[in-house]
């Protein structure tokens, strides 16, 4: 059976880098697909423990978070499946849209904020 592919758009919010869209198989992780495409993303443990690879979901399957009340309308848990437990993220991080790209595989087309700044934002503000 051929596994499904999804278009994943990568944006570097605070870096002067071009937005890139890559096709990611349902059985590979976003990090693996980026590497296959020659795109460097930050990573450390590759097992979901350190958080270095953290990205943030901006849009899934055409749905964006609503700006008015900052409630997210995107289904974060439905947008990705994890190969193993994402130990580096607390539940509230996951609810807020943070994703561990080293172990996450997409279930839908989506847009992600990536790069070292996303992890920094997570570490600097423990309430996010
Ligand atoms: S590289 Fe460590 S959690 Fe992804």
UniProtKB/TrEMBL annotation:
<dbReference type="InterPro" id="IPR036010">
    <property type="entry name" value="2Fe-2S_ferredoxin-like_sf"/>
</dbReference>
<keyword id="KW-0411">Iron-sulfur</keyword>
<keyword id="KW-0479">Metal-binding</keyword>
<dbReference type="InterPro" id="IPR012675">
    <property type="entry name" value="Beta-grasp_dom_sf"/>
</dbReference>
<keyword id="KW-0813">Transport</keyword>
<dbReference type="GO" id="GO:0046872">
    <property type="term" value="F:metal ion binding"/>
</dbReference>
<feature type="domain" description="2Fe-2S ferredoxin-type">
    <location>
        <begin position="6"/>
        <end position="118"/>
    </location>
</feature>
<comment type="similarity">
    <text>Belongs to the 2Fe2S plant-type ferredoxin family.</text>
</comment>
<keyword id="KW-0249">Electron transport</keyword>
<keyword id="KW-0408">Iron</keyword>
<dbReference type="InterPro" id="IPR001041">
    <property type="entry name" value="2Fe-2S_ferredoxin-type"/>
</dbReference>
<dbReference type="Pfam" id="PF00111">
    <property type="entry name" value="Fer2"/>
</dbReference>
<protein>
    <submittedName>
        <fullName>Ferredoxin</fullName>
    </submittedName>
</protein>
<keyword id="KW-0001">2Fe-2S</keyword>
<dbReference type="InterPro" id="IPR006058">
    <property type="entry name" value="2Fe2S_fd_BS"/>
</dbReference>
<dbReference type="GO" id="GO:0051537">
    <property type="term" value="F:2 iron, 2 sulfur cluster binding"/>
</dbReference>
């Amino acid at each position: 059976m051929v596994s499904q592919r999804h278009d994943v758009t990568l944006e570097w919010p605070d870096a002067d880098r071009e937005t890139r869209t890559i096709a990611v198989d349902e059985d590979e992780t976003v990090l693996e697909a980026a590497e296959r495409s020659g795109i460097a993303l930050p990573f450390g443990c590759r097992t979901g423990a350190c958080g270095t690879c953290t990205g943030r979901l901006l849009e899934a399957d055409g749905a964006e978070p609503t700006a008015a009340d900052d409630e997210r309308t995107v289904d974060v848990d439905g947008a990705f499946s994890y190969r193993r437990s994402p130990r580096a993220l607390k539940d509230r991080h996951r609810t807020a849209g943070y994703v561990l790209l080293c172990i996450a595989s997409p279930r839908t087309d989506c847009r992600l904020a990536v790069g070292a700044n996303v992890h920094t934002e997570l570490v600097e503000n423990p309430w996010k």
